[in-house]
User: Which sequence fits this backbone?
């Protein structure tokens, strides 16, 4: 599907709100005619405003890494919003045949690629190349870091005992992450401990007697389902995405 060109975080959030997004597109259609000029200017302004706010006005609130991460998430959201409008307009005028989902997804992906290229080539956008690099790194959020996977293989016995006691499950993972986020640990240690907890949850899902899950998919789905919790602490989110 062309929309999978999006990073997994934005794709997941759009999936949860797809009906509301489509309703908004329909409401705005009378004002939005499929032209991207105003949308491009708005996105450029917002990205530069975000950088200016946290790099110059409030330099102690966010690190450079957090600023780039924020710009990346803004860019993917703004690009998706504009492309939804363009696709809607193209269906109205017959460029895309209504009901032809393959063509719609193909066109969506083509428009997204065009916008990515525009960001890459527009030097008026502060950090334009770094923003694109950060968008690529957003994909790391759903994959267990190599260091965690190798650590589990070397020290499996403690993990297995923890799984056997059933301390971390699908039902408890949200509460577990809330406790970890509220702790006094550093963002790096919070990130590493959260990833370990999610990996244990994936172990439990993989080993359950009824409806066992693929470990990789269970890890991915759990990370996405708890994203809203983790994103409340941008430093922790940044550590998770950067962890190797």
Assistant:
């Amino acid at each position: 599907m062309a929309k999978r060109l999006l990073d997994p975080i934005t794709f997941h959030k759009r999936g949860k709100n797809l009906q509301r997004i489509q309703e908004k597109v329909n409401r705005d259609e009378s004002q939005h005619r499929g032209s991207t000029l105003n949308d491009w200017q708005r996105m450029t302004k917002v990205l530069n405003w975000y950088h200016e706010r946290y790099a110059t006005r409030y330099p102690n609130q966010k690190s450079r890494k957090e600023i780039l991460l924020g710009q990346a998430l803004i860019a993917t959201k703004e690009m998706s919003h504009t492309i939804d409008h363009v696709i809607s307009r193209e269906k109205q005028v017959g460029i895309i045949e209504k009901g032809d989902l393959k063509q719609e997804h193909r066109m969506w992906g083509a428009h997204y690629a065009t916008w990515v290229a525009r960001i890459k080539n527009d030097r008026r956008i502060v950090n334009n190349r770094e923003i694109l690099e950060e968008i690529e790194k957003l994909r790391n959020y759903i994959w267990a870091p190599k260091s965690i996977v190798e650590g589990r293989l070397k020290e499996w016995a403690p993990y297995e005992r923890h799984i056997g006691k059933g301390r971390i499950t699908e039902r408890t993972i949200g509460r577990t992450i809330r406790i970890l986020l509220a702790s006094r640990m550093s963002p790096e240690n919070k990130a590493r401990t959260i990833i370990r907890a999610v990996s244990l949850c994936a172990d439990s899902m993989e080993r359950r007697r009824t409806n066992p899950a693929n470990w990789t998919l269970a890890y991915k789905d759990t990370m996405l389902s708890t994203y809203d919790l983790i994103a409340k602490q941008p430093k922790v989110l940044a550590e998770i995405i950067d962890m190797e």
About this structure: The chain has a mean pLDDT of 87. The longest helix spans residues 64-93. Residues 2-139 form one domain.
